[in-house]
Amino acid sequence: EFPINLNEKMEIIDGQHRIMALKQLGYPVYYTITNGAALSTVRQINEARRNWSWLDNAHSFASEGNRNYKNLLDFHEAFGFNFHTLVRYASGGKSVKTQAFNDGSFKILDKAQTFMLFNRLTDLKDALPFRNTASFDAAVYDILTSPIYDHARMVKKLTMHGTQLHEWTRKKDWLRNLEDVYNMGQGEATRVRLF
Fold it and tell me: Cα-flanking dihedrals φ and ψ of residue 68, to 5°?
């Protein structure tokens, strides 16, 4: 009914899952050949059908040599953060439109800084007594990039006063709460605004 689509090099362009299922069941495989089809054709087919995840797109561009996507995959493997956190931190705090990510134009602004920010985010997540959220990650980005932020102070304060945090859904609430914890026990002269 639905033939597998191959290019002239006999590479599967569409139907990777179907061909595996047909082979396991011992059924014949019917195919069509599309001359000039490439990995970009696979992306277009699967984007139209909504089959590919961000990871599929990232792997696709990384396999073509795009270092931005390769580095993002490395960060994902090392830290396990979700898509929105990964791209927000890697792109300098900007939200990245799905279409821009899927068309291959995603860029990591500064790989070393992104790595440092992910390490610091991990430190803060490890100090929390509960599961945190994407809105927490977004708030932490703003705090980590504040020019007056002191990471050792924040880790110490969260270790001592982490129970003073609440589970918020809005970024603004996280910002206020994190700033309150950061300033706990500080005199008026050493209290700071982090956002």
Answer: -60, -45
Under 8 Å between Cβ of 97 and 140: no
E strand residue ranges, 20-169: 31-33
Pairwise CA distance, residues 65 & 59, whole Å: 10
pLDDT tier at 115, thresholds 50, 70, 90: very high
Phi, psi dihedrals of residue 131, rounded to the nearest 5°: -70, 135
Tokens of 79: 């830290």
The answer to pTM > 0.85 is no
Hey, CA dihedral for 175, 178, 184, 186, is it positive or negative?
A: negative
Q: State the Cα–Cα distance between residues 87 and 160, nearest whole angstrom.
A: 31
What pairing do the DSSP bridges indicate for beta strands 31-33 and 12-14? unpaired
Structure tokens given for 186:
């500080």
> What's the alpha-carbon Rg for the chain, to the nearest Å?
23
Q: What's the distance, Cα to Cα, between the start and end of the chain in Å? A: 58
Give the pLDDT band (50/70/90) at residue 45. low
Residue partners of 106: CB distance under 8 A and separation at least 6: 61, 68, 69, 72, 87, 91, 96, 100
